[in-house]
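Our preliminary data section would be incomplete without showing what the modeling component actually yields. Below, a chain of 410 amino acids is followed by its predicted structure, encoded as tokens that our downstream tools consume directly.
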Amino acid sequence: MTMPTQKVEIGFDLTDTGTGPYFRLDDPIAGVLDNTEFLLGGTLFFDVTSLVTSIAIRRGKNRELDQYDQGLANVVFNNNSRTFDPEFAGSPYAGQIIPKRQIRISSGGELQFFGLVDDWNLQYEPNGDSLAAAACSDATAVFANQTLFTRTNAAQKSGERVNEILSLPEINWPISLRQIDTGLMTLGADTIPDNTNALAYFRLIEQSEPGSFFIGKDGSVVFKDRTAAPVSNGVTLADDGTGIPYQSLRVQYGSELLANEIVLESAITNTQVTQTDLDSVEEYGLFNLTRTGLLIGNDSDLEDLADFYAQKFADPEYRFESVDILLDELTAGQQNDLLNLEIGDVVQIKFTPNLIPPAITKYAEIIRIDHNVDLNNHILSLGFSTLDFALFVLDDAQFGKLDSGNALAF
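Predicted structure:
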């Protein structure tokens, strides 16, 4: 068994250098009009995999109540030939070793990261070896540095609000790079103050739904509403030979997701509601969850959300936090199953502590995907939110069962 094939491509604009697959006047091949192989100019992706020594990708969040962090990648190159030296005119990419170059990283033929290079970090060793590291981030970092002009929004569903903000002239996000649910929560009419941070406003919409806002591995903006149903897709991770094997598993059991006093406040209606689970408070003590400034336009929706949180987080959760998987030891089919996973997908996990039965079996939603790749190994780490409490999904083998902890609606 071997590692999945890695591929790293960076977008360079070499139009002025005359190199690359660009149209060349009077050339019998590159000068043919209306061809799609030799372009007039602009940014093209160049395969730089042969110089890669390591890849690290970090995407997702650590627990369910968090919001998704910006996706990060760090790609280290052998730079002995000064290919990635911004001061070296002899580089084939001279003039293009600059910030904000597009980068895409694939493994096993599946895209795992799309973003921008923020920094080029160069390291020179006394023995003559040198490295260049491209520190990269996804579009979350772009939104974090964009501000919105003042505007007044009409009442609308949460996903409609996300789409409207993405279409503003100051954002102008491509339609082709959106995966936006319509949303269930109706947001009230509000006025956005001038110079409001775009990412902060998107996250306020996310909390008001409540849903999930993140950047997909293909670079798309993803917004999932609160009824985006977990669907069991057949991938099982197991330590007993009945699924894809993993190297290590971490378990959390405690108060990290315990909340028995819920305080929610709407900036639209200026209403604050509090919901307390007294049995939970008596058993574990007081654990508060407060959300203020929400855009919820109806007080009954605010109360329903508080009730939902109080029910869901009233007890501590035994949670499979994460697993580490060595892809080198898997079959091509198993590698493909794992590399096709995305944040929000669901897997089944089987764990037999110290190989002493019975096994503990849970379904879990993926909330974090990390890759660590060097010349010898590829370790995939998956982080989870356990689905002991999930919405009912018609016809799904696991989440379509009544009386199995699956809620019909919220």
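Residues 22-26, 37-41, 390-396 have pLDDT under 50 and may be disordered. The first strand starts at residue 6 and ends at 12. Preliminary results of this kind motivate Aim 1 of the renewal.
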